[in-house]
Amino acid sequence: IACPQLARTVQRCLQGGASPGPQPLLLECAPGPGILTRTLLNAGVRVVALESNSAFLPNLQSLENSLDGQLKVVYGDFFRLDPLVTGTVKPPAMCSDKLFETMGVAAVPWRADVPVKIFGILPQKKERNTLWRLLFALYECSSIYRYGRVELNIFMSEKEYKVLTAKPGDARAYQALTVLWQVGCEIQLLH
């Protein structure tokens, strides 16, 4: 997100309906130049910036060093979490257990509050595959869902959003992916 006005809108959506008390940690996927990151930090949100592009890391790390623990910058790619490989995982791919350890988030029961909110933009090339991977992990209670319920706030194409929110009878959009996401999650259009 490179537009300050869009960053403020996203920040309001992410904090909308927040209850008093400690807010969950926000994992920002691919923050890039950090415009949304700064907006979130200015609103008092604790952020973990998960950046896979090394060109953006120095600026984000400089911002991290100027703050007192409100921001943590991690080199990694959210959409390459828990790759199905044997042996060593090479960055920017990473394992969710290492990420959550770095963030300082421990597992909580599914009935507890959401410990982590995640914000990201689905990669257009593999959007459907990514949705399936997130869904499999949800039903297996693996990867990011091993730590309890997680709130996903993601930008996606209108096409995929229509599939996830389709109603029975819509022959083009209503699919197995639709049913499984609707059973497992509350899907809302935030903006």
Quick recap:
The protein has helices at 4-15, 35-42, 57-65, 96-103, 127-140, 158-164, 176-184, and strands at 25-29, 47-51, 71-75, 116-121, 150-155.
SSE series: HEHEHEHEHEHH
Q: What would you report as the Rg, rounded to the nearest angstrom?
A: 17 Å
Indicate the mean pLDDT. Answer: 92
Main beta sheet strand tally, sense and closure: 5 strands, parallel
Q: What is the level-2 CATH architecture name?
A: 3-Layer(aba) Sandwich
Structural class: alpha/beta
By DSSP, the count of extended strands is 5
**DSSP helical segment count:** 7
| Major beta sheet, strand line-up | 3-2-1-4-5
Question: How far is the N terminus from the C terminus?
Answer: 15 Å
Principal-axes shape call: globular
**CATH class designation:** Alpha Beta
Number of domains: 1
Kindly report the CATH topology: Rossmann fold
> Helix content range of the residues, please?
25-40%
How is the topology of this model organized?
Elements: H1 4-15, E1 25-29, H2 35-42, E2 47-51, H3 57-65, E3 71-75, H4 96-103, E4 116-121, H5 127-140, E5 150-155, H6 158-164, H7 176-184
Parallel strand pairs: 1-2, 1-4, 2-3, 4-5
